[in-house]
Amino acid sequence: MAAFQKMQQGFHHELKAVTGANKSARGTPLTSGTRATNIARSSRNVAKLNIVSQVQTSNLVKFSQYTKFLGNGLAVIDFGGRVGNIHNSYKAGGNWEREMFIESSSFALSALTGTAVVNAGSAALGFMMTS
Questions:
Q1: N or C: which end of the chain has fewer CB within 10 A?
Q2: Cα–Cα distance, 109 to 5 (Å, whole number)
Q3: What is the spatial distance between Cα 122 and Cα 116, in angstroms, rounded to a whole number?
């Protein structure tokens, strides 16, 4: 748990460094998962992501390199925690089948959301690199 918290704090600091200059009231795709998902699902063009300078693009590329490494680690930690919850429910004599359904559904939904955000980010980077 301590390692997970340390990794979360490092991720939070990196996120602040990348998005520090943008003070949008609604949040940015990198700070608001809901906003990122809405942009990824909508038919808006990539310019709405507000990446307007080479410095921001460079910071986003660096951030994506960190998240590629951290993303796999976070997925493993998340999956392990969910399996632990199911196991604890089983050991306590609880309704572990229900717990397994809830945890697996939640994991699948978070994986789909993460994939949508990554795809939107990749499209934005591709657009910025070609422009």
A1: N
A2: 22
A3: 10
Q: How far is CA 12 from CA 58, 82, 98, 121, in A?
A: 18, 22, 33, 18
36, two tokens: 């990122």
Alpha helices in 1-131 (DSSP H): 2-19, 33-41, 54-91, 96-130
Instruction: Specify the amino acid at residue 64.
Output: S
**Which residue's structure tokens are 């945890």?**
103
DSSP 47: G
pLDDT in tens, the chain (131 residues): 888 888 888 877 776 776 666 666 556 666 566 776 676 666 555 555 566 677 777 777 777 777 777 777 777 888 888 888 888 888 998 888 888 998 888 888 888 887 787 777 777 766 666 55
Cα dihedral 28→34→38→44 (10° resolution): 0
